[in-house]
Amino acid sequence: xxxxxxxxxxxxxxxxxxxxxxxxxxxxxxxxxxxxxxxxxxxxxxxxxxxxxxxxxxxxxxxxxxxxxxxxxxxxxxxxxxxxxxxxxxxxxxxxxxxxxxxxxxxxxxxxxxxxxxxxxxxxxxxxxxxxxxxxxxxxxxxxxxxxxxxxxxxxx
Length: 157
Hints:
By secondary structure, the chain is mainly alpha-helical.
C-alpha cells in the first residue's frame, strides 16, 4: 500500500506560505521513488552509499575528510559507509604520498559500473519528474528555483 503525503505541516494560507511545503513534498516524492529504485535494483545500494559513490566518482582521489567537509556528515558514519563500500569492492584507496595518514579513495571498476547504472536510473527519474513540461517551462522552473535558492542564501539568519 502506498503512503500518501501527510498534510500536518502544510499551510492552507497564502500561496507564498506553501511554496517550500510544495518543494518539500516534491523532494519527498522524488526521494521515495529514488529509494525504491535503489532498494529494488540489482545492486543493493543504500541512498547514502550512492551519495558516497557519487562523490568519489566526481572527485577521484579525495579523502574521507574531503567528503565530510563537502557533505557535513558525521565522520564516523562516513567511515562505516566507506569501509563497507571498500569491503564490497566498490571503493579502493591508497595512502596519500604527502601525508600517509590520509587515504585517497576512488571507485573501482565494479563501483564505477554501479555508479553508471545509478546515474542512468537518476536520469530516467529526472525525466519522469518534468514529463509534460515543454523546454520553456523547464527553463522557467529552473530559473524560479534558482531564484528561491538565491533568496534563501541571501536572507539574514
